[in-house]
Amino acid sequence: MATLRRLREVPRHLLVCEKSNFGHDKSRHRHLVETHYYNYRVSFLIPECGILSKELKDLVMEFGPYYCVKDLPLYELITHEFINTFVKKGSCYALTYNTNIDEDNTVALLPNGKLILSLDKDTYEETGLQGRPSQYSGRKTMRFSAEGSMMMSYFSGYGIQEHQPKIALSTTPDLRCPVLRSGLLGGEPEAACSTRELFDWLGAVFSHAGLNNEPYNFVSTYCCPQPSAVAAQASLCTITGFILPERICVLLERLCRYFDEPKLAPWVTLSVQGFADSPVSWRESEHGFQKGGEHLYNFVIFNNQDYWLQMAVGANDDCPP
């Protein structure tokens, strides 16, 4: 019975939605992207688009590389040479690899020079690039991502590997899409779907789940919310790796310019998922895993430069900023 009760328990999740315009002086879009440090998957969906433009394809190909250093002594992160070479120049991110945030010791280097130490499931500590030597006495396999990086030469004495992000492009014919109106965040019966309905629909699309509620489909009975319209084709691009916020900012700006010329699509989306084992979500906000580990955000970009911003976190996290 205890097991049954635990299965029935639905973990708490938070979804925060807001509406703004990219042209507004107080728009938070760039700040929210820049302070979500540890990103492992970026996806954008463009309805009524069969082939991505050369400009978008070239931009996607410029997202890498990132690096993995095996058995790195943690004191390397606080040496004067490392600080001067990477940290003081900004845009350097590091995160332990193959760790479980609620069970293992986890270390993260923020671009502002702070180290986040999650020493066990009950200890969370922020520190500068100083501290007790015992804090940095272990070894970890670390992931690094940095602009203009010299990682390969700097860590040549260790087992370092360079990785390129994985890129997946697909085109879906006859995709049924929710009807959205930028001014109706909560939706309106028979007129427009809500932001929550769109969020659920995107999850199904990214999972390549069936959307027709077919009686013989035993994997998914989900169907597109109403009202809806069929896009003749839709392009989905997914980039997976260790992706810098700076590169996501450039992609967001390019998608904002997608409507500079008339398009059939009324909106496009940009979705970003963070590493489940990151000790922070936004800025220095503590992140845990427990039953999910999710921290993500999604932009819905309308053709009038309005946007919806959806931010979601899991069971242990505070409300998104």
TrEMBL record:
<dbReference type="Pfam" id="PF08584">
    <property type="entry name" value="Ribonuc_P_40"/>
</dbReference>
<dbReference type="InterPro" id="IPR013893">
    <property type="entry name" value="RNase_P_Rpp40"/>
</dbReference>
<dbReference type="GO" id="GO:0000447">
    <property type="term" value="P:endonucleolytic cleavage in ITS1 to separate SSU-rRNA from 5.8S rRNA and LSU-rRNA from tricistronic rRNA transcript (SSU-rRNA, 5.8S rRNA, LSU-rRNA)"/>
</dbReference>
<protein>
    <submittedName>
        <fullName>Ribonuclease P/MRP subunit p40</fullName>
    </submittedName>
</protein>
<dbReference type="GO" id="GO:0000171">
    <property type="term" value="F:ribonuclease MRP activity"/>
</dbReference>
<dbReference type="GO" id="GO:0004526">
    <property type="term" value="F:ribonuclease P activity"/>
</dbReference>
<dbReference type="GO" id="GO:0000172">
    <property type="term" value="C:ribonuclease MRP complex"/>
</dbReference>
<dbReference type="GO" id="GO:0001682">
    <property type="term" value="P:tRNA 5'-leader removal"/>
</dbReference>
<dbReference type="GO" id="GO:0030681">
    <property type="term" value="C:multimeric ribonuclease P complex"/>
</dbReference>
